[in-house]
Amino acid sequence: MGLPECIAIEPLTGPVEARITVPGSKSITNRALVLGALSRGEVTLTGALWSEDTRIMVEALRRLGFELEVEPEPEEPCNRRIHVRGRGGEVPCGGTPERPLELYVGNAGTAARFLAALVALGRGVYRLYGTERMHQRPQAPLFGALRQLGYRIETPNDRLPVVIHGTGPRSGACTVSVAESSQFASALLLCAPCAGWEVEVTGENPEESPYVAMTLRLREQFPGGGGVFAVEPDASSGSYFWAANDPEWLWARLDEDPAALDPTGWPVQVRHWPGPELQVDARFPGVWQMLVAAGHAVRGRGYPMELEISRERDLGDAILTAIVMAPLCGVVCRFTDLRRLRLQECERVVALRTELSRCGARVEERGDTLTVWPSRLHGAEVQTYQDHRMAMCFAILGLKVGGMRIQNPACVAKTFPDFLVKLAAPPPAGLGARIRDARTGDVLEASGLGVDEYAL
After folding, report:
1. For a Cys staple, 223 with which of 3, 227, 268, 280, CB 3.0–4.6 Å?
2. Whole-number pLDDT of residue 450
3. pLDDT tens, residue by residue, 161-190
4. Which positions of the chain have pLDDT values less than 50?
5. How many domains does the chain have?
6. What's the confidence (pLDDT) of residue 258?
7. pLDDT value of residue 456
8. pLDDT of residue 302
9. Do residue 329 and residue 209 come from a single domain?
10. What is the pLDDT of residue 345?
11. pLDDT number for residue 157
12. What is the pLDDT, as a whole number, of residue 134?
């Protein structure tokens, strides 16, 4: 039985002492799957995310002829232990011009970009296609770089669907811009050692640098001759649970004890929290701490304060969490450098402005900046635009604001299939929230809130 088309989240009645596990990083898992396929032995990925995006990658690699075995991991239902038998740079299967080998990538940007570079190493013809939204998302810099390397790329508009003629590894040099997405560079850099490619990255900026740096560090750390590689918990997914620490609760504690500002003492904790070396969103607890501290400083004192948070400088995808929670923080928040959010699972800048305004927030969109004022929010039925992060951000808002209803909650399967389970499960493993079918009013049991997409 699937999730209802719309769910209602009831606010928590007070602080909850919880210790939450979150699934493995999507960004790391899909990079590690490609590196495993290119390795020269069998690699076991532990803590690997098993969600829509990573399942798409596993299924595509299997269609390409790679051997992968998937086993459950007991601590986190959305994680898997994945054994990948590498082929040392060989792609086993390929199609013909008349019958290309078809690979479905859904709306997974990492799968679409990483597989495009990988199949160039094959010896055959491949057709990559996905959802309508994936066909709208940019690909031209990657396709241009592959053409510079001598590969034949057939697409009428430099987007998906695309037909790629793989002719095996061929040494060469290319230039790729990351102005629109770092995934273009990461796709090429993952394959470069096996392919003999020299990749020059241009248009790099602080927003994209962390993800290119992640790729290079993973390439260095990965056991290319075989072995075990541990995938970190996903920091973007963890941001939702750090944000479950309500500013009002924290301000009350701060009135009594200034040390309460330290995230290590907050009621809701995310277990096995990673350092920031690989994932930029590991900085989220510090950003949330800054917002809470600023709100406490101005509370009841009558003077304004404005903070700026940049996607180029401070956060990656977790900036969506900060934007949705900002009306509750008591300060004016300017979120800058958001242009890349317009090119992702939905047009996120417009979606955030629209849905926050629907909830009563004062939000201004100017260029690629959203300014959010302290606001008295009310419940609303929130559209999610088939975007997993929109669904999860506004579900957390529903823990603080009464009357919140979330359309299409099953879209969380893209990266966090048991997200709603963790909201509803009793503490300390969950937050103990009450979730209802918004149409019938029936309370939904935690055990029935998982999304079937992540079954083996």
Report:
1. 227
2. 86
3. 999 999 999 999 999 998 888 999 999 999
4. 454-456
5. 2
6. 79
7. 42
8. 65
9. no
10. 87
11. 95
12. 94
Q: In this structure, is residue 229 part of a structural domain?
A: no
Rounded CA separation 321/331 (Å): 16
Q: Which of 53, 234, 317, 337 is catalytic?
A: 317
Domain end residue (candidates: 196, 224, 252): 224
Residues 337 and 321 in one domain: yes
- Residues 286 and 410 reside in one and the same domain: yes
d(CA 186, CA 65): 22
Is residue 246 part of the annotated active site? The answer reads: no
Tell me what pLDDT residue 205 has.
64
